[in-house]
Design goal:
Elements (H helix, E strand, L loop, with lengths): L1 E5 L11 E7 L12 E3 L4 H12 L10 E5 L8 E9 L5 H15 L6 E5 L8 H15 L17 E5 L6 H26 L7 H15 L2 E5 L1 H6 L3 H7 L7 E7 L9 E12 L19 H16 L4 E11 L11 E3 L5 E3 L7 H14 L4 E6 L3 H7 L4 E5 L2 H8 L2 H4 L3 E3 L4 H5 L8 E2 L7 H13 L4 E5 L5 E2 L9 E2 L4 H9 L2
Parallel strand pairs: 1-7, 2-5, 2-6, 6-7, 10-11, 10-14, 13-17, 14-18, 15-16
Antiparallel strand pairs: 2-3, 4-5, 8-9, 9-11, 12-13, 15-18, 19-20
The chain binds ligand BES, manganese (II) ion and zinc ion.
Length: 501
């Protein structure tokens, strides 16, 4: 999809489809307050073309609500699409992101290959923010996880143009557009990795895809396997990997901007389980196919690194992805095994399905050894986070308030939903072991917090954030602005966190 800017008059733009946003400007609340759908444009010809449908009462400008007009009177476009933002008083930049996604997803299955979206003219939404978010929404909306379907009908929208007022600061809008494109394409890179099935994306294949991306954007990278994992004494990572015919991959990417030799050094650590059967503590077969997305945390880190390489913040960033396949086998690790992590701590294995925390334990330790001063990890770590927060919010845990605050303040920009979850001595108590230093599960209750406490042991005194995206990395039901399948959650928020250093 080509993404462009135009400063022409809306009425004169010749295109297949012109999309304009509308909001409900009714300020009264309650059942009798009639919606007042209002177009967010100053173009009189567009307003006139939409006047009848807006007055009809059929269309209320609800969030992502659409109405299509063919051959609108007085306009050069063939079609006029109106997309709702909901209540104008509550309209956000994220609303613009999803409205742009909605416009693209409306267009795509109808065989229309080009569209123009009018940048909304509202005081509360700066045009640069709207352009950045709309470009993201459109590129994310254009993605479908259908690469393995030979009957795929939906072809991508070929050209998406944002039409802004002729009085805008054109340079600033172009910069915002370029940034939006980078971020969304990076998130789609993550989504395409997450969509790959276990047989098409083994741990080493994930490593090669990471390396290829790193070469494209100019990041330094290394790819290690079994030998290096033994050399580093990564006993926790190896215990998970040992049951698979597929060798594990230790993927390391580095972003070192010129002239930055000190200050914070950020360590991004991702869980890269390319398939999680549960191992000897095998999972039930229902929904097990979904466990191909158990590398979504690692893929999110790779997507964030791609965006970082292209946006060039002035801070050093390191990325470690621990990729392996969790399989039952004659050589697989077993409940009751005791393994020694890279840090020297002994882990009492209770359940081989709690494998993510094991690979991350060594990943966090390695990132510290390589010099990381601040850590962030992302993982599809626990089913418990989905029970607690549903498929709405991802979980966030942190051992340091300042580091957490940098993440929190980025959420308004990223538009992603994270909810802070508790850590604490009472949870740590639940993973104490009689046999070793720590056990790898703490029972059914508070499962997301005990898993986070486990990771915290390996972050040691380094400021650290843990993102549990098990409930949000895969979308089961399509939304108007985004396809079902891999969400690419966390890429945008991790990027915002990095930019705040
Ligand atoms: N990969 C799973 C977590 C998961 C569940 C991801 C659902 C995506 C959707 C993880 O490795 C796992 O199996 N966790 C166990 C931990 C338990 C054994 C303590 C779980 O959540 O059941
Ligand atoms: Mn598991
Ligand atoms: Zn897992």
């Amino acid at each position: 999809m080509k993404t462009l800017l135009s400063f022409a008059n809306l009425a004169g733009i010749e295109t297949e489809l012109l999309a304009v946003l509308a909001a409900d400007t009714q300020t009264l609340e309650g059942a009798h307050a009639k919606p007042e759908p209002t177009l967010l444009t100053s173009d009189e010809a567009v307003k006139a073309a939409a006047a009848t449908v807006l007055a009809s009462g059929e269309y209320k400008a609800g969030v992502n609500e659409t109405v299509l007009l063919h051959a609108p009177a007085g306009l050069a476009t063939k079609r006029l699409l109106i997309v709702g933002l909901g209540k104008q008083s509550k309209a956000t930049v994220h609303g613009v992101r999803s409205a742009a996604g909605t416009a693209v997803r409306f267009t795509k299955p109808r065989g229309i290959r080009e569209l123009v979206l009018a940048v909304p003219e509202v005081e509360t939404l700066p045009a640069t923010d709207s352009v950045r978010a709309a470009a993201q929404g459109a590129i994310l909306g254009d993605f479908d996880a259908d690469t393995y379907r030979s009957d795929r009908k939906d072809q991508s929208v070929q050209s998406f143009t944002l039409a802004a007022s002729g009085n805008s600061d054109q340079g600033a809008l172009q910069a915002a557009l370029d940034e939006g494109i980078i971020v969304a394409e990076s998130q789609n890179f993550t989504r395409s990795l997450v969509n790959e099935p276990g047989n098409k994306l083994t741990p080493m294949m994930l490593g090669h895809r990471a390396g290829q991306m790193a070469d494209e954007v100019g990041l330094k990278w290394s790819l290690f396997s079994t030998e290096k994992i033994h050399e580093l004494k990564m006993g926790a990572f190896w215990s998970v990997a040992q049951g698979s015919e597929e060798p594990p991959a230790l993927i390391v990417l580095r972003y070192e901007p010129e002239g930055v030799t000190d200050g914070p050094f950020l360590g991004l650590v991702g869980k890269g389980i390319t398939f999680d059967t549960g191992g000897i503590s095998i999972k039930p077969s229902d929904n097990m196919e979904k466990m191909k997305y158990d590398m979504a945390g690692g893929a999110a880190m790779l997507g964030a690194m791609r965006a970082i390489a292209l946006l060039k913040p002035k801070v050093r960033v390191l990325c470690v992805v621990c990729a392996a396949e969790n399989m039952p086998d004659g050589k697989a690790y077993k409940p009751g095994d005791v393994v020694t992590a890279m840090s020297g701590k002994t882990i009492d294995i209770i359940n081989t399905d709690a494998e993510g925390r094991l690979v991350l334990a060594d990943g966090l330790c390695y990132a510290r050894q390589l010099g990381a001063t601040h850590l962030i990890d992302a993982a599809t770590l626990t089913g418990a986070i989905g029970v607690a927060l549903g498929k709405v919010n991802a979980g966030i845990f942190a051992n340091d308030e300042e580091t957490y605050a940098k993440f929190e303040t980025g959420l308004a920009t990223s538009g992603e939903k994270f909810w802070r979850m508790p850590l604490g001595e009472e949870y740590a108590e639940l993973i104490k072991s009689d046999i070793g230093d720590i056990k790898n599960t703490g029972g059914r209750y508070g499962g997301a917090s005990t898993a986070a406490e486990f990771l915290k042991v390996f972050a040691e005194e380094t400021p650290w954030i843990h993102l549990d995206i098990a409930g949000t990395a895969w979308i089961d039901d399509a939304k108007p602005y985004i396809a079902k399948g891999p969400s690419g959650v966390a890429v945008r928020s991790i990027l915002e966190w990095v930019r705040r250093f």
